[in-house]
């Protein structure tokens, strides 16, 4: 069905539309139309957008007054979960965005299924709020992993970052050079005001070279220094985390490769003269995908090197002689 665009609300969404993505869709929709309808949920007097922000914005840019849409009967928490799942499946999220989406999904999921909360009493004191549930709801990490294709470890890590890093700090970090999982982990245990102060300091311009201490320093691998301070249990957890990061990067790379193959196939089919503009658009998208694939392959290699170092440190600690007299 077609729904008037002016009846669709998009407020209270975690992520707003990206202009480059909207521009790319404008060219495609102008040539071949909107191939995939957006998804909305009825509200009082209109509809709330569930999925398809970039498609909706592209239709607005083209001056369309109505847009093809699929209507689902969802409450507010279900809409949040659907929005978060759509974005968490995308390979282009930054660490801060993943943290924010995962935190919001967890809050909505536990509102629907309070029995899954970590602090929920054991037994049947809490019944799921999801109408028609007959089986106990799976834990949040398992449900999110199944819905988004991530590992439970990755979901747990993103949720912790989203819950412990303040909204103010996340807003300052988003889209900057500090927007990495490693940086979020480095500040998550600080008080909210200390998080903001550290982010401000780390984003401030660095001192001129002439004011820095230029005394020669012995080269020390920062990853080696970090690993040397960890206990064996902490190292094992670090290895598991690094392996999860590596698996995520490989999954993203595979997804991008599949998308590239799809674009290549579509490009090969577009041979008629009337589709010249479509071919040009597909070629641009293919070029962008190649760049993103290269970035994720580089990231995967980096995570693999870190994991190898951490595993070597675990073996090193396991082989240390134990002084029985000191026990």
TrEMBL record:
Keywords associated with the record: Coiled coil
Compositionally biased spans, kind Basic and acidic residues: 154-167
InterPro entries in alphabetical order: Chromosome_partition/occlusion, ParB/Sulfiredoxin_sf, ParB_N
Gene Ontology, cellular component aspect: chromosome
Biased composition (Polar residues): 144-153
Domain of life: Bacteria
Pfam family, one: ParB_N
Any Gene Ontology biological process: chromosome segregation
ParB-like N-terminal domain boundaries: 1-88
Coiled coil (UniProt feature): 279-320
Annotated region (Disordered), positions in chain: 110-168, 201-220
Keyword Coiled coil among record annotations: yes
Designated name of the protein: ParB-like N-terminal domain-containing protein
Organism: Brevundimonas vesicularis (Pseudomonas vesicularis)
């Amino acid at each position: 069905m077609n729904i008037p665009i002016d009846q669709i609300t998009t407020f209270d969404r975690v992520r707003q539309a990206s202009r480059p993505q909207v521009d790319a869709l404008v060219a495609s929709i102008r040539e071949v139309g909107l191939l995939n309808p957006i998804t909305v949920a009825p509200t009082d007097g209109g509809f709330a957008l569930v999925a398809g922000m970039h498609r909706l914005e592209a239709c607005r840019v083209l001056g369309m007054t109505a847009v093809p849409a699929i209507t689902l009967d969802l409450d507010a928490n279900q809409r949040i979960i659907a929005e978060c799942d759509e974005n968490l499946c995308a390979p282009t999220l930054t660490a801060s965005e993943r943290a924010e989406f995962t935190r919001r999904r967890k809050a909505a999921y536990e509102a629907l299924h309070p029995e899954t909360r970590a602090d929920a009493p054991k037994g049947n004191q809490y019944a799921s709020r999801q109408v028609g549930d007959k089986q106990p709801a799976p834990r949040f990490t398992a449900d999110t992993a199944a819905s988004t294709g991530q590992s439970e470890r990755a979901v747990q890590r993103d949720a912790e970052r989203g819950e412990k890093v303040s909204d103010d700090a996340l807003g300052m970090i988003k889209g900057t050079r500090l927007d990495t999982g490693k940086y979020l982990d480095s500040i998550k245990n600080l008080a909210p005001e200390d998080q903001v102060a550290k982010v401000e300091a780390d984003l401030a311009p660095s001192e001129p070279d002439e004011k820095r201490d230029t005394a020669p320093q012995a080269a020390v691998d920062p990853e080696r220094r970090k690993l040397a301070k960890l206990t064996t249990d902490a190292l094992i957890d670090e290895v598991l985390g690094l392996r999860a990061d590596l698996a995520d990067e490989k999954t993203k790379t595979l997804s991008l490769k599949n998308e590239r193959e799809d674009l290549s196939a579509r490009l090969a089919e577009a041979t008629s003269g009337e589709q010249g503009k479509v071919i040009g658009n597909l070629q641009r998208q293919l070029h962008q995908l190649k760049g993103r694939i290269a970035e994720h392959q580089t990231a995967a290699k980096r995570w693999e090197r870190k994991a190898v170092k951490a595993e070597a440190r675990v073996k090193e600690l396991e082989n240390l002689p134990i002084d029985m007299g000191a026990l």
